[in-house]
Design brief:
The chain has ten helices and 13 strands. The chain is an alpha/beta fold. It has a single domain (4-272), classed as Spore Coat Polysaccharide Biosynthesis Protein SpsA, Chain A (Alpha-Beta Complex), CATH 3.90.550. Strands 5-4-1-6-11-8-12-10-9 form a nine-stranded mixed β-sheet, with helices on both faces. It has a two-stranded antiparallel sheet with strand order 2-3.
């Protein structure tokens, strides 16, 4: 039903400097896989086969990762090390990758708008690779695709956060229409705790209907002088319906050092078991 997934990947990753001076933050590894590969695998598990990636200067490593390295293949062919490439070969064989650049860093909404030529006129998913999610059964995107099949509207993934952290996230307000599913009435980008309507924070998983592109084109810059996807979604919610979904699974903020270390330890213990 939803075949395309958009990955905004043009950011500088300043919280991981100097490592991200020459290495895209999306290529930082959790164990042996870069963050963006976890996101692509989650999209494949949800039935998507077309990955649209928004890159920027210094991000060629992402394109090279999702490509065949003939020299490397030749060097380790028929050796005990060849199996290390099995996972990435499987990913490359299951989907296609297309790329475009975000010339200026003008916010997540602007990054998504840059992907219009890659997406076209159809509903699509968005994954922020530094939000690494893990679920026991269906991945977060697969859960959201099932919800989209029922409601046919834009959906954002949410989780409860400490009230004092609301100034780090987009925060939603809404009515719970099913267990863990909220119809959004308001969204505020990074409100101070005293101004936050709830502690339900949007994380880096979205399903968006294609009318979001026209809305983004007329959305004025908001907080931090950036085009915010929350502002566009609020416009969409006023004209139609936007849902927030409290997903089943665990999410790691790998855009922070604490979250990155937590994810590394979690997946290491999982692999050891």
């Amino acid at each position: 039903m939803i075949k395309k997934c958009l990955f905004p990947a043009a950011g500088y990753g300043t919280r991981f400097l100097p490592a991200t001076k020459a290495t895209p933050k999306e290529m930082l590894p959790i164990l042996t896989k870069p963050l963006i590969q976890y996101g692509v695998e989650e999209a494949i598990q949800a039935g998507m086969d077309t990955m649209a990636i928004i890159t920027g200067r210094g991000k060629r490593a992402i394109e090279d990762h999702f490509d065949i390295s003939y020299e490397l293949e030749h060097q380790i062919k028929n050796t005990p090390k060849e199996h290390y490439l099995n996972e990435i070969r499987h990913v490359i064989g299951q989907c296609t990758f297309s790329y475009t650049r975000q010339i200026e860093m003008k916010g997540l909404g602007h990054a998504i708008l840059c992907g219009q030529s890659l997406i076209g006129n159809e509903a699509f998913a968005v994954v922020l690779a530094d939000d690494l999610c893990h679920a026991k059964d269906d991945g977060v995107l697969a859960q959201m695709v099932k919800l989209y099949a029922k409601y046919k509207c834009s959906i954002v993934a949410i989780e409860e956060i400490p009230k004092e952290d609301t100034n780090k996230y987009g925060i939603i307000e809404g009515n719970e229409i099913e267990d863990g599913i909220f119809m959004i009435s308001n969204m505020i980008e990074k409100p101070e705790p005293k101004d936050a309507p709830s502690n339900l924070a949007i994380i880096g998983r979205y399903i968006l209907t294609p009318d979001i592109f026209d809305i983004l084109k007329t959305t004025k810059a908001g907080k931090a002088d950036e085009i915010q996807i929350t502002d566009a979604l609020l416009t969409q919610a006023k004209n139609n319906m936007v849902l927030a979904y409290k997903f089943d699974g665990k999410r790691f903020d790998c855009g922070s050092i604490d979250g990155f270390v937590e994810a590394t330890n979690y997946f290491y213990k999982k692999e050891v078991k």
